[in-house]
Specification:
By secondary structure, the chain is an alpha/beta fold. Helices cover 30% and strands 24% of the residues. The protein has 15 helices and 24 strands. An eight-stranded mixed sheet has the order 6-5-14-15-16-13-17-20. It has a six-stranded mixed sheet with strand order 8-3-2-12-19-18. It has a four-stranded mixed sheet with strand order 1-11-10-9. Strand 10 and strand 11 form a beta hairpin. Helix 1 runs parallel beside helix 4, helix 1 runs parallel beside helix 7 and helix 7 packs antiparallel against helix 8. The model has no long low-confidence stretch (mean pLDDT 94).
Length: 541
């Protein structure tokens, strides 16, 4: 068996989570190897929403503009969601600027969301990852087995194109290998929750002229509420490429291409020469791993959490996992962080996963199947009354799915062992309203500066000390403590008056992932940095 050069981190899986982890490590000078058993080529739509927080990470990596330029429908395409009986039928309700995709500056975030196929996102991430020194990606390469000890992890790999086996040693291994994770099985993590909430179908097809064959105007999704096929349908890519997603399908019904074409025509009420490109069935479940780590092996993304896709959280949550874990692995490997920093990964991410999974399950509970009402397609006054009633219910219930800035930006890490505790009532979770706060554990509040840049653009790659109105002696003391401890720290003093209202403490310590680690009116000494870097436990900080 061939013994290969040792990366510091071996990443199993080259989807968005695995590629994001490679970027987070590669941009910090950490050599990593990504192995992927597939070639990542296909029509499957998977995720289509890249939310504002994910695009803020892309901005930090310097590739947000690159993703914006690849938008197949154009970045200005309206992100409306239309509920109708069918494309050829009656409109029931609509949500405009769903997911906050509209371009333009919003004071709450530095990047708008984007409606874009996951495979396009993967392409941008992959190109950037491969451009970084020390990052290697091997496709058609699978993990067979792993073992670990105090010195690292040894993995046995197989090249699927030739069958040759090899052995790789790494300091750490991360399983970002999806719902059927091999890494998860090898470390004995069990998925707990409910499997099989519903069976659904993904059909990708080509439909020249479909965008002009209905009167509902441009939208990213049309929810069709009818008895023939309650479903979602919408444009996905260039070349008149659309997706069609019947929900709560009968497991006994297996649709071939002919059946799929007929079902699209029946559901939409529009008969065109549809060309089916792909069709597959997927199962919505709500499952959470009982642990995300065993020794030097970690799990990220779908390998440790699975939930219905309604709300667009899945891919984005996996990327956020990789950001949280990536900078922490780099800090430990660079020698300036302690073991408690790696312990904080599961402590921080698991409560977020649980909250988001609960939201996704609530969204899944009201699909087109549940919105059906007798007479919804009737002509005349009775049909109009029924459609008004259903439309009112949609406006009230589905806002939770399409206006979710509170979930996307409002999650907090207050119970993390590397976040300073603070007295006083905690902010109540709110799925819609995002209220910025500089309380430790929260995402650092965003602001646009007078020179047109984002406040985030001025944060360092390590920790950032935002000194809104601090004494120079406090700033110098903090920088001295960081230098002595070998902890990277950048100090910034934005002059804009609005910053003080967002950061009421004189000093705010912000982590590499832009979450607040500590705040106060005077620098208390090196213990604050030691706690944030995982060098001490909470009781000894």
């Amino acid at each position: 068996m061939e013994q290969q050069a040792s990366p510091r981190v071996l990443i199993v899986g080259a989807g968005p989570a695995g590629l994001s982890l490679a970027i987070e490590l590669g941009q910090r000078g950490i050599a990593c190897l990504v192995v992927e058993r597939n070639d990542r080529v296909g029509y499957a739509p998977r995720a289509k929403t890249t939310n504002v927080r994910t695009r803020e990470h892309l901005r930090r990596w310097g590739i947000a503009d690159r993703l914006r330029a690849t938008s197949p429908l154009g970045v200005d395409y309206p992100s409306n969601v239309v509920f109708c009986t069918r494309l050829a039928g009656f409109e029931l309700a609509r949500h405009e600027n769903a997911m906050y995709c509209a371009p333009g500056r919003n004071p709450l975030y530095s990047e708008h969301a984007q409606w874009i196929p996951q495979y396009t996102v993967e392409g941008v991430l992959r190109e950037h990852a491969q451009s970084l020194p020390g990052v290697e990606i091997r496709f058609c390469c699978e993990l067979l087995d792993l073992s670990q000890d105090e010195g690292g992890v040894r993995a046995r790999l197989r090249d699927l194109s030739g069958g040759a086996e090899s052995s790789v040693h790494a300091d750490y291994l991360v399983g970002a290998d999806g719902a059927r994770s091999r890494v998860r099985d090898l470390i004995g993590t069990r998925m707990q929750g409910e499997y099989g909430l519903s069976r659904n179908r993904n059909i990708v097809f080509r439909a020249p002229g479909l965008d002009r064959a209905h009167r509902h105007g441009p939208a990213i999704m049309y929810w069709q509420v009818n008895r023939d096929a309650p479903s979602l349908i919408g444009p996905m890519d260039r070349g008149d490429t659309w997706f069609f997603m019947p929900t709560h399908v009968d497991a006994a019904q297996q649709a071939d291409a002919t059946d799929a074409r007929a079902q699209i025509a029946r559901a939409t009420g529009i008969d065109l020469p549809y060309q089916v490109l792909s069709s597959d069935e997927w199962v919505a479940s709500k499952l959470l791993g009982d642990r995300y780590r065993k020794g030097r092996v970690f799990l990220a993304g779908d390998a440790c959490h699975l939930h219905p896709p309604f709300g667009g959280y899945g891919m984005n949550m996996g990327i956020a996992d990789s950001v949280d874990l990536g900078w922490k692995l780099a800090a430990v490997l660079q020698g300036w962080a302690g073991p408690a920093l790696l312990d904080s990964y599961e402590a921080e991410r698991r409560p977020v996963h649980q909250w988001v999974m609960d939201e996704a399950e609530r969204n899944h509970a009201v699909l087109g199947n549940q919105l059906l009402a007798e007479g919804i397609e009737d002509e005349g006054e009775r049909g109009q009354r029924i459609r008004r009633e259903v439309g009112g219910r949609i406006q009230a219930v589905k806002m939770r799915e399409f206006s979710t800035l509170g979930v996307v930006l409002g999650y907090q890490y207050e119970d993390s062992p590397v976040i300073a505790s603070e007295s006083g009532p905690r902010p109540e979770p709110d799925f819609i309203n995002y209220v910025p706060t500089s309380r430790p554990g929260a995402l650092a509040p965003h602001a646009w500066l007078h020179d047109g840049s984002s406040l985030y653009d001025h944060f360092g790659q390590g920790y950032t000390l935002l000194a809104a109105s601090a004494r120079s002696t406090d700033i110098e003391a903090a920088l001295t403590d960081a230098r002595r401890a070998g902890i990277p720290l950048t100090a910034i003093q934005p002059a804009e008056g609005a910053i003080a209202s967002l950061y009421p403490a004189r000093l705010t310590l912000i982590r590499p992932d832009q979450h607040v680690a500590w705040r106060g009116d005077a620098w208390p000494g090196a213990d604050v940095l030691a706690r944030a870097a995982g060098r001490t436990t909470p009781g000894r900080a």
